[in-house]
């Protein structure tokens, strides 16, 4: 409320467009949250642990979708509720744990105020240490969740849901190569039929 009062006062005194000010304010708040969450995560790292240098591996398409979807869930209660109602499951167990823990955290704190700058930072206090780095990575995604369209969200869900089918398609491709190399025409025909069936199944999801 106090923030809105000052915002309207600035608009009245400067004639600056209110939507433009709101956009700038959201960017600033998002940056503050990211910095705060990162600092909380760093503080929890064990200082005595040996330093291991390693090269960060690029995320797979599925993991990118999982992180992006969770980033949206952190700020959009209705999306989280829709996923719960559909019994949606993440591929990676760690992301599923984060999703479940976030839902429980919001329920226990009876909070639907996703504009609270310290909500996610407080969430870090409630979850096991092994989830902190993942949560910090999700929170540091550089685009605000408010910009996510329904199509983007559906694309993320489809990518995650189709993960198992993609794995099966890769296996069939390998089996097809082996069958062709052995001139096993019956096996090639069978595998081709399975491949087409899975492709149709994936398009229906």
What does this structure look like?
By secondary structure, the chain is mostly helical. The chain contains ten helices and no strands. Helix 2 (18-43) packs antiparallel against helix 7 (132-139), helix 3 packs across helix 8 (150-161) and helix 9 runs antiparallel to helix 10. The two termini are 43 Å apart. Residues 46-54 have low confidence and may be disordered.
Task: Give the helices and strands, then pairings.
Layout (H helix, E strand, L loop, with lengths): L1 H13 L3 H26 L17 H13 L3 H9 L7 H16 L10 H8 L5 H8 L10 H12 L1 H19 L3 H20 L1
In short:
With 205 residues, the protein is mostly helical. Helix content is 70%, strand content 0%.
SS summary, helix count: 10
Can you give the helix content as a percent range? Answer: over 70%
Number of strands: 0
Rough outline: elongated
The class by helix and strand makeup works out as mainly alpha
Q: Unreliable stretches, pLDDT < 50, 5 or more residues?
A: 46-54
Structural features:
single chain; 205 residues; mainly alpha; 70% helix; 0% strand; elongated
